[in-house]
Amino acid sequence: MFKRGFWTAVAAFAVAVGMGQAAAKPSVTVGGKDFTEQLILAEMTGQYLNAHGFDANVRDGMGSTVLRRAQLNGQVDLYWEYVGTSLITYNKVEGGAKMSREEAFEKVKELDAKKGLVWLQPSGANNTYAIAMEEEEAEKHGITAISDLVDKLKGGEELSFATNAEFAARPDGLPGLQDHYGFDWPRAQVKRMNSGLVYKALDEDEVDSAMVFATDGRIAAFDFRVLEDDKGFFPNYAITPVVREDVLKENPELRELMNELSSKLDDDTMQALNKQVDVEKKAIEDVAKQFLKENGLI
Description:
Layout: H1 2-23, E1 27-33, H2 36-51, E2 55-62, H3 64-72, E3 78-82, H4 83-90, H5 101-113, E4 117-119, E5 129-134, H6 135-141, H7 146-154, E6 161-163, H8 165-169, H9 174-181, E7 190-192, H10 195-203, E8 209-213, H11 218-221, E9 224-226, E10 239-244, H12 245-250, H13 253-262, H14 267-278, H15 284-294
Parallel strand pairs: 1-2, 6-7, 6-8
Antiparallel strand pairs: 3-10, 4-10, 5-8, 5-9
Helix pairs in contact: 2-15, 4-5
């Protein structure tokens, strides 16, 4: 009777310890914005951290300012941000577009540290905003740079422009672009729509030009010409994992894990991943998992 009771107690203790260990699995909330690249990055990060001992909860599909606020409020622990977005939109740094990649990164790292946010290793992917036209249409009008487009508009040509709502309002978007290049796009020629529809509208000749993201796979797939930013308006937008300082202190292993993932990303990689989802119509979950496996991350 004693032996049976003893071993029963030992077994119960072992189960309790096991349950305690499972409950102690560190939890992290991964955020993401509401466009393809961010959805891929959020899903990829969630799968990656789950495979390395975390309980990752992915919350994506948010607008930039909403996501930033959620991280500052402690509702999101980690997400991928763009250097230029923090530099100009969040921290209001004047002249940010003229900073080198290194200067811009060090500046946002310094400013956001005061807010309890830690910028980890920036990736090699620079998803800057850009202005694009269909190759044939740009050739027809003799447009290779943004200044060429501005000259046509000032000369009275009607060239419509597709943009999402965010770019239309951001200081590093259309308002800042107009100030920097010294022009005003006629309101009637500016068409606001969902980010995904912007590419469709340009591809189907519904507009003459559009805002695009430099790492988007549809640029090459649809034969778009990205206009040269000849007056250097757009800043560097290196994609970088940003984590709350308190979360990093509790889980210091996050630094090495996220830096390793970040080191695998560059412009060509992000274009290829985005193309798989937007052009080839593959599931985001599958694209993320395949990338992680091919790079030996899971």
